[in-house]
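Q: My labmate handed me this sequence with no annotations at all. I'd like to see what the chain might look like in three dimensions before we decide whether it's worth expressing. Could you predict it?
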Amino acid sequence: MRALLINPAPAHCYYSFPEARRIAGKKCLGIPLGLITVASLLPPDWQFRLVEAGVRPPTDDDWAWADIILFSGNSLHRQSLLDLIRESRRRGKRVVAGGPYVTYAPEEVLAAGADLVARGEGEATVPLLLEALETGRRQAVLASPEKPAMSSSPVPRFDLLDLELYVYVQVQASRGCPHDCEYCDIVARYGRAPRYKSPSQVTAELDALYRLGWRGHVFVADDNFIGDRASARSILCRLYEWQREHHEPFSFNTQATVALGRDREMIDLFTRANFGDIFVGIETLDQDALKLAGKSHTVTSSCGDWLDTMVKNGLSALLSFIIGFDGEKKGAGERICQFVEERAVPVVMINTLWAIPDTRLWNRLRLEGRLHDRVPEGNELVGGRCNFVPSRPEPEILDEFVRTWDRLYEPTTFVQRAYRYYLAMRPTRAATARRTGQPDDTVIRTEGRSLKGAIHDLRKLMRLLGTMGVREGCRLSFWKSLFGLLRKNPSRVVQFLNACGHGPDLFRIREMLLLMKRPVGPSGSGQDDLRTPRPSAP
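A: Here is what I predict for the chain of 538 residues:
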């Protein structure tokens, strides 16, 4: 069987980062981990081709070669996914689709022309798929409620990838989360009991990437890596050993709760293994809204202290906030801005609340008659109108949403925040060991970069300097901040530059949102009253 794996093109939004990809010299952000995991679960005599539709559409040769087309995608891929399914049917191909969006909207995907839709984890649904193909079933939803042990998950087919396309690669160490937040779909998809791969399974995947020549960033794509702390510790300890054995070829990031900040030992394990950024979902600073959302494990009075502990001990936090929760009081956006600016967190994701199918929030709003039958389109993938009737006026929510983006991503404000953040972070262990002249057995000797890798890094640096230091309006602040860090905390300059690499895309989203909200005066020209005053350079 010849299977064409197609990763649909993502819509332009927060998660697509076209400028960051340009600066990195890459075409895609992350790899299609779901597709290459499914490929590893299918029979060994199957043949595979992988197409990144965001880079190039399938060719006539691809279509002619394939016996079957396999798709995966989330809501960002919706339009491309549906268009490609229709094209597959037009060409008379058998179509199978899976992934998060397909799980939420199987009827729409079937209506577009898919023969089979898989809902559930691949380890449980691939056997159902093989049976359906053998019996000739069509227009069927293949669903399994099983939550398979992660020991059954094989090493993904990384060899199918053109690794030169990607900014980072992903591995997955666990599924599930012990916290049943009302708005989150993780428990509905993966359950409340965290399931982990063994440390040797995780390092087997790293071995595969290493053999293929990957060097650089690896995202551990867990929804809550510290859901079971004992399992997380054992993996982190093995990752540290693996990094020492291989001279630290990878840097990592992952997702965790803000409560990581109360565990100094765990923070040290993360930094020893070379984790730099942790994505943290705070979501709201309103305690009543947290309680209604079932996120009681996040205590707003402690969030600031926990974040301070993380940054002082070498971990960066990328924060997520959502505006529009039930129980939220007016001024939520202002409270988010104050919190972020006080702690100088550079990169923050701000969204309006969207009820995801199958979550407890979705079910509650449906019973209350508050759901709208709306699919997110275009700019709503960044943030826009809610798909339900919120508990406070929707125009008020949207106005706060835009004002929050405007204030946090005014370019000079963003650069100043990044400078203060990395200035406060402790120097790296290696820098401390060099300064003191004392040996440190936690310091890993990194391997030398190849000439090709060094040239790539130099080109990336020049593109970043040309963008942030020349093109953008924050150039004066950027250069002052860069030279300030070089003098005062040079071991954190790379992290500062990486954070700044997010800036151009965030600035464009801010401009887009301001344009959408700009009122029109009597003359017909835009009269924008939302822009914040431009702050002075540091």
